[in-house]
Amino acid sequence: MPAAGCTSGFGRASRDFYVEHGQPKELYLRELEKGAGSYQAFEDECSKLTQRQLKALGCRYHENKQAYLPPSDSTFLRVLDQVEASAFDLAVGRWMIEQEISVLDCRAGSAR
């Protein structure tokens, strides 16, 4: 699996705070499973986000619960169902090509 890019040389110091350590690492993306359970997996991952992260992502604020709510699996289904697969594939491919130089720089930097 090719690397998607590299980190900026920061490490997690607490749940939502990072400190610079100057050692970038290659970043790999997990392949999402296709099938009925994949949208539920999106919802499960979003439920791990902090309130600060949900707010930054523009999630809906629920007045009664006094909290930002992560999107549900049905929201992901509705949104992703409208995505044109070929256009998305082209956009991701172009992004990956742009990252190639970044990956090489990351590898060169970590080899020093």
Summarize the structure.
The protein is of the alpha+beta class and 112 residues long.
Strand ordering within the main sheet: 1-4
Q: Tell me about the largest β-sheet.
A: 2 strands, antiparallel
Q: In total, how many beta strands?
A: 6
**Broad structural category:** alpha+beta
Global morphology: flat
User: What is the alpha-carbon Rg in Å?
Assistant: 17 Å
Oligomer: single chain
Helix content: 40-55%
Strand % is: 15-25%
Low-confidence stretches: 32-36
Helix run count:
4
Structurally, the number of domains stands at: 2
Succession of helices and strands: EEEEHHEEHH
State mean pLDDT (0 to 100 scale): 75
N- and C-termini, Cα separation: 23 Å
Helix-strand layout with pairing:
Layout: E1 5-6, E2 10-14, E3 17-20, E4 26-27, H1 38-46, H2 51-56, E5 61-62, E6 67-68, H3 73-81, H4 85-111
Helix pairs in contact: 1-3
Q: Care to describe what's here?
A:
Helix 1 crosses helix 3 (73-81). The chain folds into 2 domains: 1-31, no CATH class; 34-83, no CATH class. The longest helix has 27 residues, at 85-111. It is flat and about 50 Å long. It contains 4 helices and 6 strands. The strands form 3 sheets. It has a two-stranded antiparallel sheet with strand order 1-4. Strands 2-3 form a two-stranded antiparallel sheet. The protein has a two-stranded antiparallel sheet with strand order 5-6. The protein has helices at 38-46, 51-56, 73-81, 85-111, and strands at 5-6, 10-14, 17-20, 26-27, 61-62, 67-68. The protein is of the alpha+beta class and 112 residues long.
